């Protein structure tokens, strides 16, 4: 963590003695050395586990979990360090908890499994303030989503263009309801103390939330982290019938698009109201129905939550987008768009070569019946560019070309010399990263 942070104990928190990026709690008086649960042996096989050791009345209950964006190897390293430190810091204690940035280890002589414990503490960035309500809005959505994200109960978001990175997670012993109760409680604590700070977190024994303005998520290109954007019109549906029709529309889109090579559009009539909808999965998912289905399910749920009763909306997810309107839009270019830029710089030569690759892919995509093309360019032994461009298949070739060229012009202007960019519209998408984010075994690639 790069910012200076201040520890803020809740009114019921227990004493702490924190080394950097670590918190340790040992509330119980010394007793005979406990028989530790066999967590050390398990840490190489899972990023979350709970175990017991010993027989009553000397049973010890223990668990660990790592943040869902952490690899198993990094999780193992974090837990092994935590095991050593908790033994050194809390010798012979009946109960102890140790927190690191990316993992938690906990044991007790009392069975705490399944019991939400929110008796924790907050930490804030004391050097920077913000008046934006956006971080709380994002974390509030994660608090809703994480309990449903089985089995890890972990959700994270990264809005690169907004410098907003956040996560919410529960320990795996909790039920979905217990997780929801835990996260809701600690979010209320944050709202009461810390939302004016540009960076905060709350660590409880059973759940965490965290927001920062600088990247801390460990796997932005992996499945644990999803990057989303949404557009909601200012006008609402003219009647309740349209809201009811939206449920049927989204159900039809999520059901049929995976079976139609990742693309489907349809119309739903609800009394006097007409609704038009479209769903598109990323090109490398056209033969992976389950992944396409999962993404569309998430996007369909989010579009209703993010844009309640709105007459038009678009929800962009990592691997798909969903769009609807009460006005016919099939075959037309959408003027709504978002641009996201990377945070690191690349050389002018790398930037120019990547743009050349992207423009080549645009020409290739309009010749492809599925309007998608992807490519890889090796720039140096340590740097490669990966680009994917795609249009919605309701467009003509000419309008697909127009949409992609418009997006390319925008990112080349707004994201000059950055190590990644995205252009999101309701008609096409373009994406460039310095890591492989698409499945090259499924989608054909073009290399320069």
What is the strand content?
25-35%
The CATH homologous superfamily of the largest domain is named Gnk2 domain, C-X8-C-X2-C motif
Q: How many domains?
A: 3
CA-CA gap between termini: 39 Å
N-to-C series of helices and strands? EEHEEHEEEHEEHEEEEHEEHEEEHEEHEE
Uncertain residue segments:
1-22, 25-35, 220-225
General shape: globular
Tell me the Rg in angstroms. 24 Å
Mean pLDDT metric: 83
CATH top-level class of the largest domain: Alpha Beta
Percentage of residues assigned to helices: 25-40%
- Could you describe the largest sheet, including whether it forms a barrel? 7 strands, mixed
CATH architecture of the largest domain: 2-Layer Sandwich
**Helix count, per DSSP?**
8
Strand order, main sheet: write it out.
1-7-10-11-9-8-12
Q: How many distinct beta strands? A: 22
Structural class: alpha+beta
CATH fold naming of the largest domain: Killer Toxin P4, Chain A
């Amino acid at each position: 963590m790069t910012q200076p942070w201040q520890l803020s104990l809740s009114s019921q928190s227990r004493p702490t003695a924190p080394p950097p990026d670590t918190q340790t709690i040992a509330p119980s008086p010394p007793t005979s050395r406990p028989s530790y649960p066999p967590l050390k042996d398990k840490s190489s096989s899972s990023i979350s586990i709970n175990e017991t050791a010993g027989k009553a009345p000397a049973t010890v209950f223990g668990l660990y979990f790592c943040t869902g964006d952490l690899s198993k190897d990094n999780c193992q390293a974090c837990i092994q360090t935590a095991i050593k430190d908790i033994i050194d810091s809390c010798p012979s204690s009946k109960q102890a908890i140790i927190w690191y940035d990316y993992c938690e280890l906990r044991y007790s002589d009392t069975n705490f499994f399944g019991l939400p414990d929110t008796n924790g503490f907050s930490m804030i960035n004391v050097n920077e303030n913000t008046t934006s309500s956006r971080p709380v809005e994002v974390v509030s959505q994660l608090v809703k989503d994480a309990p449903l994200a089985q089995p890890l109960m972990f959700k994270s978001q990264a809005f690169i263009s907004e410098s907003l990175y956040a996560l919410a997670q529960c320990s795996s012993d909790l039920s979905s309801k217990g997780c929801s109760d835990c996260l809701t409680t600690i979010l209320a604590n944050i709202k009461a103390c810390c939302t004016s700070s540009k960076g905060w977190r709350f660590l409880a024994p059973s759940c965490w939330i965290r927001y920062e303005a600088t990247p801390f998520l460990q796997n932005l290109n992996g499945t644990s982290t999803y990057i989303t954007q949404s557009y909601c019109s200012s006008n609402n549906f003219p009647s309740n019938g349209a809201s009811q029709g939206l449920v049927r529309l989204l159900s039809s889109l999520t059901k049929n698009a995976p079976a139609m090579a990742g693309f489907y559009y349809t119309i739903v009539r609800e009394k006097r109201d007409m609704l038009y909808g479209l769903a598109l999965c990323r090109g490398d998912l056209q033969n992976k129905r389950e992944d396409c289905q999962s993404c569309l399910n998430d996007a369909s749920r989010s579009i209703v939550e993010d844009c309640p009763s709105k007459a038009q909306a678009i929800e962009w997810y990592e691997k798909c987008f969903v769009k609807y309107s009460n006005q016919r839009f099939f075959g037309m270019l959408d003027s709504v768009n978002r641009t996201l830029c990377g945070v690191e710089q690349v050389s002018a030569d790398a930037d120019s070569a990547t743009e050349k690759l992207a423009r080549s892919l645009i020409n290739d995509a309009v010749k492809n019946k599925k309007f998608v093309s992807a490519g890889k360019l090796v720039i140096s032994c340590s740097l490669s560019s990966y680009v994917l461009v795609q249009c919605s298949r309701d467009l003509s070739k000419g309008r697909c070309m127009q949409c992609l060229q418009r997006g390319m012009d925008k990112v080349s202007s707004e994201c000059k010399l950055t190590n990644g960019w995205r252009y999101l519209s309701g008609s096409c998408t373009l994406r460039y990263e310095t890591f492989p984010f698409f499945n090259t075994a499924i989608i054909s690639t073009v290399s320069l």
